[in-house]
Amino acid sequence: MNNLKNHHNKDGSFKNNHPIEMTHRSLKSVMKWKLLESLPKRQSIHHIECDLNKFRNTNESLISWIGHATFLIKHNGLTILTDPHFSKRASPFQWIGPKRTTPPSAQVNHLPNIDIVLISHDHYDHLDKASVLKIHEQQKSNPPLFVLPLGLGKWFKKRGINNWIELDWWESHHIDGWEFTSVPAQHFSGRSLRQDRTLWCGWVARSTADDRKFYFAGDTGYSPDFKAIGDHFNGFDVSMLPIGAYEPQWFMKHIHASPEDAVKMHMDVQSKFSLSMHWGAFMLTNEPMLQPPHKLKQALLKHKIKTSDFVSQDQGAILSLFQ
What we know:
The chain has a single domain, classed as Ribonuclease Z/Hydroxyacylglutathione hydrolase-like (Metallo-beta-lactamase, Chain A). Helix content is about 20%, strand content about 20%. The protein contains eight helices and 14 strands. It is globular. It starts with about 25 loop residues before the first helix and ends with a strand. GO terms for molecular function: N-acylphosphatidylethanolamine-specific phospholipase D activity; zinc ion binding. This is MBL fold metallo-hydrolase.
């Protein structure tokens, strides 16, 4: 009898719910991309310094995009940080690899006390060792809980961090009046030649006191998973959806959502209000640095969705929620 879940392989690795072309794994395709596709001009996006004191001095519900896939969220007494990345490069080394074109809108050593850190997967632009270690070090007396996809706990344990939990897709953890659920994403994992040995995911954070629901999609291509997520949770109050790293489409479309894909995700998950992410910080792919928000507006108009329902906020701006 086969008791393996659909996204589990017999060798202990993981796979997506829906089969995709493995273009990103083909050496020929990688060489074609690197040799034939031209990189865009390096540009910094508009950004401001996040006023972190607002998160310390209020019980108001707040959210701020710190950069790339890093959001700071406060609601119902809990402060949540997603995919913290405060380093200059998305790389195992700080002398080579994708370099930031836009600095983060906060410094890691100035953060308010963090209660929960959500990690979507182990790629270097989402799991940054220096940032994670700094957060852990500066909160040793009151450490945050790192909420991880399946298999990633070993990485944290190896670095002396023991305050973590791992969740498989559709598993939940309850803490302090909140429910955190790992949900499917269409992507892959690996920080070396060993690929897909840890899971990748999105996260749903639900405040049980008022049933407010936050959805952090992580890094993902578009798939039927989002309709299932929206139906399961009956929609979301706030969603954080990726809109960048999508060109060239022949190479990226299965693993990175385009702005058009993100609008479909917004509709599929039944999001009342969405914020864009995963653009403007690193030059990872071939679209012009400032293109994603413009493409997003075009896609929203095409689908007759108000641009105020899915916004590209200024990096570092603080939005008040549920007023």
